[in-house]
Amino acid sequence: MRSVHIVATFQSPVLALRAAERLKEAGIAAGISQVATYGPSVAHVFIAHDADKDRAAEVLRQEPDPVPDDLEVEEQSLPDLSRLPAKYAPPCPSCRVVLALDEFLEHCPHCRVAVDVAALVTQLHGPEVLLLCYPDQPGIESVHPDLVATVACACGYSLASNPPTGRCPECGVEYDKLIMLRERGLA
Predict the structure, then answer these.
(1) Is the pTM of this model over 0.85?
(2) Do residues 182 and 175 touch, judged by C-beta distance below 8 A?
(3) Are 147 and 155 in contact (CB under 8 A)?
């Protein structure tokens, strides 16, 4: 069993994600873990190797690059739901008819109830799935190999030597290593 080492703690998961990204850019296998408590939640930034602890501390001491002000955030924030596999299409909350993966769909075509398809996808599958909706997201090759090696199917079978996507040879469940790592905050 591999152990991880917490190198920073933030009250904002956004700041924790930015810190983990800076570590990854420096070649350090890093991820975040969010802890929900009865008070304010916290997000820990962790690294996979104890040997990287000093280098990680140095990277985190450096000032992060500022976020450009001229981004048209609203325009860039809409997920392109058509990039998702069909298995993520949510049912209408009213009539249960499967909805099209269309971010502009405002009403169920069957019962006409108001819907937010992106919100429904997020409720069913978690916000990590929406990362697949943006074209400039890096693929599995951008994830440190040691983190990819930790991926296991729900049945417990290690997928370390298996391709990035496929079916578990043990239980037959479809998997996508990148989605599995993103769900754990590791990619």
Answers:
(1) no
(2) no
(3) no
